[in-house]
Amino acid sequence: MSRTEQIKPAPLDVHASPRPLSGDIAVPGDKSISHRALMFAGLAQGTTRIVGLLEGEDVLRTADAMRALGADIRREGRDWVVDGRGIGSLDEPADVLDMGNSGTAARLLCGILASHDMTAVMTGDGSLRKRPMRRVTGPLAECGATFLTRSGDRLPLAVRGAAQARPISYRLPVASAQVKSALLLAGLNASGLTRIEEPVATRDHTENMLRHFGVPVDVTPLEGGGCAISVQGPARLAARDVIVPGDPSSAAFPIAAALLVPGSSILLRGVGLNPLRTGLLQTLREMGADLRLENERVEGGEPVGDLRVTAGTLTAVDVPPERAPSMIDEYPVLAVVCAAANGRSRLRGLAELRVKESDRLSATAALLEANGVSVTIEGDDLLVSGCGGPPPGGGSVATHMDHRLAMSAVVMGLAARQPVHVDDLGFVDTSFPGFVRLMNGLGAGIGA
Ligand SMILES: O=C(O)C1=C[C@@H](OP(=O)(O)O)[C@@H](O)[C@H](O)C1
Ligand SMILES: C=C(OP(=O)(O)O)C(=O)O
What we know:
By secondary structure, this protein is α/β, with parallel strands linked by helices.
């Protein structure tokens, strides 16, 4: 049983915020960048200092796994310091690698293991064991690794990494930064050019951070759209310090709450603004949200800024499917915002939501329905009939071991007319430790 499953469910009734939200906060570090910082630092030669690492459950699993592969990882004050092992010099893990709730940790690690001459076994919690793994194990087998998976597609899995990995050339069938990153990571220890074609752009933190650690990454536009990303192996990573920006996917929750609780105005400092992550901000602006960016700057190679959010009236939105990768984790909370808007919103092309920590498409629909909001799933689209103000609320929400559903349900509770019962807030620590404390610092009165 993994750590997250040992925690007793933490149910909570969330009441409407007793006052407008106000104040000035910084959300925790970006989860995607934090996983990569630990992995790349562990693969590098030398010592890396990481500032602003997310200390969420998912990232701590990556730290444990990289330690099991021989990296020395420790906390020094508020920073994390990693003495890397170097590509090709990793230890064979002495025990099963437990990736907890984290798809990113599991899939990216498969990439590292596939091109190292060792045997490893990997598992995860009850949510992660339901998620598809063939999307990485299939193409990674091309480099010479052998994977044994439960039912051909699920954790637990065993991998026998290739002794002399071959480079992979692959066109992504789904828009997934995890699959892209796993294949690029395998390519670092393969002899020759690894080339990944990406028809639709996904978050490019792997490419950015590889360059930061001194590995050339070529990105060439493809005729007909998308691009090809290549790395030449074997590569050497040189340790470099990393600054992790605030996670825009975590910022989504206080942003949504501030838009919906009347009279609110908050400032979020140091939010990551990588253009492949800002689909939610674009969508909220289309709904009429008052979002103002201040102090835009580049920190640690990623654009960041401070974001002023002011409550106001919102109108329905039609979100095109090609925007999904730039806001894939934000749809549950966007649906809650749409529930309070004027008119019927259509969120298109959400097939990938079905294979997240839960089936987020049906679970988001259930969250809204339980709280008196009319919602329909048509194919891969979610249609939400906005209430033109506070939704009725009064429902009970099943979070299915899914942190984003839990936080979306809290936002619904803060904005709704009747309290919302959330069955388990425990998984919030996956990506946003201190979420309730931070929201209460803005005046939300959760659990008061
Ligand atoms: O690469 C990453 O760090 C992530 C990619 C996305 O998953 P997919 O690649 O499966 O879309 C996202 O949902 C996840 O939270 C983090
Ligand atoms: C989908 C998510 O993460 P992962 O795939 O890493 O579990 C998420 O954080 O919403």
